[in-house]
Amino acid sequence: MTASPYAPVGWYRLVWPILRHFEPETAHGLALDLLRHGLLPPVCAGTNPPVLAVRALGLDFANPVGLAAGFDKNAVAARQLPRLGFGFAEVGGVTPKPQAGNPRPRLFRLDGDFAAINRMGFNNQGEIAVAARVRAGRRPGFPLGINLASNTDSDNPAEDFVRLVGSFAPIADYLTVDVSCPNTKNGRMFQDPVKLDDLLRRLLEARANYRTPMLVKLAADLTEGEALAIAEVTLRHGLAGLVVANTSAARPDSLTSDKKAERGGLSGRPIFAASTALLAAIRRLGGPGPVLVGVGGVFTGADAYAKIRAGANLIQLYTAMVYRGPGAVGAIKRELAALLARDGFTGVADAVGDGTLS
């Protein structure tokens, strides 16, 4: 019998049957604690063959597989993340003031759907604590991005972003302006192109003394027209690119889990097709120039390859770690390198948008 492409990898096969009975946020906290203290069992992180090397955002990436925001909100494990085989990571979302987020339970596994729903609400320890850890935890040669968000109770969300850019532009490798969270009062207000236009103008002024690349993160459940309007504003202001896409408030009919009615953002396999379609549309709009980070439902090397062919320079994952474990990163890299070689590509850059712009 052929193993599922979404099956746990390595020692996680032994752990997952036990871990799945833990409350999801408890299981996540345990995994993060083990990682931050260097106690996570060794994983087969895989090598980084030259075919996987990427030059983007003015940075060198050993491979294009990154950890999405949300896993390490407070940058507590920033120094340990390279051990898992990632080519880069994004920590946060970070808000100016610490905030507790929404009441628990607020994270739900949809096991039969290889998905999750979260309504965390940007729980984090705030700008000062996270900035201190970023300064202490950065590893040379491992790009580290910061996901920026406004406080839920803020009466001036734009000023929150301005403040965060001022704090993190000097210490981050790149910044992501998260305007796509469905779980907070201010989470999606800047998906309005007019409001986004004014916000980006202010953020570029706040970043004037630095060259730190900035990206805008979109939601997965936008229509193509809505996504293209946001992308047009982003690119007109000269930002480096976009992250496509965040979680979705939509609920596909294909969902089978009894948790599917929970409120929050849906991630994992069910949003793969929609997020990849948005990615391709934005690549067609922007041409070869913008840096696009493809995220949403990446579990395998074939998934990563599909995102790259649709237009992604880099990809991110998170939910795959829940179901496949940390060994998934090494497996994805091996599969991706083999697919690139099979099709005659000498590097990731040669395949970017090949299925969209050709």
UniProtKB/TrEMBL annotation:
One of its GO terms (cellular component) is cytoplasm. Pathway: Pyrimidine metabolism; UMP biosynthesis via de novo pathway; orotate from (S)-dihydroorotate (quinone route): step 1/1. It is found in: Membrane. It catalyses: (S)-dihydroorotate + a quinone = orotate + a quinol. Its EC number is 1.3.5.2. Residues 52-340 form the Dihydroorotate dehydrogenase catalytic domain. Its cofactor is FMN. It holds the Pfam family DHO_dh. GO terms for molecular function: dihydroorotate dehydrogenase (quinone) activity. One of its GO terms (biological process) is 'de novo' UMP biosynthetic process. InterPro entries: Aldolase_TIM, DHO_dehydrogenase, Dihydroorotate_DH_2, Dihydroorotate_DH_cat, Dihydroorotate_DH_CS. Its main location: membrane. Keywords: Flavoprotein, FMN, Membrane, Oxidoreductase, Pyrimidine biosynthesis. It comes from the Bacteria. PANTHER family: DIHYDROOROTATE DEHYDROGENASE (QUINONE), MITOCHONDRIAL, DIHYDROOROTATE DEHYDROGENASE (QUINONE), MITOCHONDRIAL-RELATED. Belongs to the dihydroorotate dehydrogenase family. Type 2 subfamily. Catalyzes the conversion of dihydroorotate to orotate with quinone as electron acceptor. This is Dihydroorotate dehydrogenase (quinone). It comes from Zavarzinia compransoris.
